Amino acid sequence: MADDAVKNLITVLRDSNKGFLDVGEHLESSTHRSFFMEEAQVRARYADELERAVGEPGGSVTQAGSSAAAAIHRTWGDLKAKLGGGDHTLLETAEQGEDAAKKAYQQALEDSSISSTARALIAQQFEHVRQSHDKVKAFRDATAVA
Fold it and tell me: Count of CB atoms within 10 A of residue 88's CB?
């Protein structure tokens, strides 16, 4: 059975996958939209990799699905898009989601009960997630109204 920190991280990655897809569908910029669609696939792959690393491919972790907080966050993003918030507002919402992903990675890396194999995979993924966060933030800043 996977450690709680890893289970939480897998749930966050599944949430990230859905969030990137959802925001990506609403973005006007084709460059941003393309990045979001690609990143959604990365998050799904990362969740699958972690499930395999803890010996639960397709197991109870996958079945757990999305967190309630993430569902509310996505609904809020949808509402912003429908109200004409534009790319900047959507990117703000996405950055908040990325902050949650970074926090989940940090918590997992601080958990001493995680195996060295899983820890190495988490550290590798975390580097990409940090870079993704920075890119989302740069997109957000570039769309800010002066």
Answer: 16
